[in-house]
């Protein structure tokens, strides 16, 4: 019988690629998404389509208090930064969502305990998003240590809980190449931080859009994104 894995699925390019990686490794797939006060719900709609396309056994969408992450421009009133080089920006950007990955992984860990699963997957990258402290190897290692010390699975059952971050050291180009090799339909994914409200078309100007567009160009893969 296959092992079970909890995959954090935002509906974006990275998390969809990670879902494909988990499937390629033979795991039974359980996907977890969050509604946490985002400025739009196009990503969650994409997550539902992707979960269906990958034959996920169960896909849960959890709702968190909308004011929990109010300091981020992804959920608050501040404007999303645009028309800049994301990789040249120093410091932690306003699009950082405080403690988001810590909270998301904690919910994934709780569900894993219920399923007696020992594998969590997350689509973080320290190459393209090194400004985010919870997308770095140090964070992933620290959470894995916590998970094994704080759970029945990791203590009483004696299993090692692993937090898989298969994109950690990949560029966007390499992530796209990996996803294409695993059959990811990137036309189903949504990445833009500030899409057109009417139809979800990507702005093409936020950090996420710029990195996504560069990745497809570098990989020599047609970009299926609908840009405004």
CATH topology: Rossmann fold
Query: What share of residues are in beta strands?
Result: 5-15%
Strand arrangement across the biggest beta sheet: 3-2-1-4-5
* Parts with pLDDT < 50 across at least 5 consecutive residues: none
Distance between the termini: 46 Å
Average predicted local confidence, pLDDT: 94
Taking the sheet with the most strands, its summary is: 5 strands, parallel
Number of domains: 1
Order of helices and strands: EHEHEHEHEHH
- How helix-rich are the residues, as a percent range? 25-40%
Based on the structure, what is the oligomeric state of the protein chains? single chain
Shape: globular
CATH secondary-structure class: Alpha Beta
* CATH architecture annotation name: 3-Layer(aba) Sandwich
Rounded radius of gyration (Å): 17 Å
Number of helices: 6
Determine the structural class based on helices, strands and strand pairing: alpha/beta
Q: CATH homologous superfamily, by name?
A: HUPs
Defining traits:
5 strands; Rossmann fold; 6 helices; globular; 228 residues; alpha/beta
Any overview of this molecule?
The protein has a five-stranded parallel beta sheet, with helices on both faces. The chain has a single domain (4-219), classed as HUPs (Rossmann fold, 3-Layer(aba) Sandwich), CATH 3.40.50.620. The model has no long low-confidence stretch (mean pLDDT 94). It is built from six helices and five strands, in the order βαβαβαβαβαα. It is of the alpha/beta class and 228 residues long.
């Amino acid at each position: 019988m296959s092992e079970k894995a909890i995959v954090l699925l935002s509906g974006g390019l990275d998390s969809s690629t990670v879902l494909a990686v988990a499937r390629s490794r033979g795991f039974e797939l359980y996907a977890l998404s969050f509604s946490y006060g985002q400025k739009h719900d196009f990503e969650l709609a994409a997550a539902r389509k992707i979960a269906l396309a990958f034959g996920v056994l169960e896909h849960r969408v959890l709702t968190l208090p909308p004011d929990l992450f109010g300091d981020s421009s992804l959920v608050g009133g501040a404007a999303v930064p645009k028309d800049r080089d994301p990789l040249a920006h120093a410091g932690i950007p306003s699009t950082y969502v405080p403690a988001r990955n810590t909270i998301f992984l904690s919910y994934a860990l709780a569900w894993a305990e219920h399923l007696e699963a020992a594998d969590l997957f997350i689509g973080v990258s320290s190459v393209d998003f090194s400004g985010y402290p919870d997308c770095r190897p140090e964070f992933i290692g620290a959470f894995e240590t916590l998970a094994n010390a704080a759970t029945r699975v990791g203590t009483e059952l004696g299993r090692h809980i692993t937090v898989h971050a298969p994109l950690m050291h990949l560029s966007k180009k390499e992530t796209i190449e990996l996803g294409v090799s695993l059959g990811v339909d990137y036309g189903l994914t949504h990445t833009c931080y500030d899409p057109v409200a009417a139809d979800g078309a990507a702005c093409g100007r936020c950090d996420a859009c710029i990195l996504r567009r560069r990745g497809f160009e570098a990989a020599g893969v047609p970009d299926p994104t609908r840009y405004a």
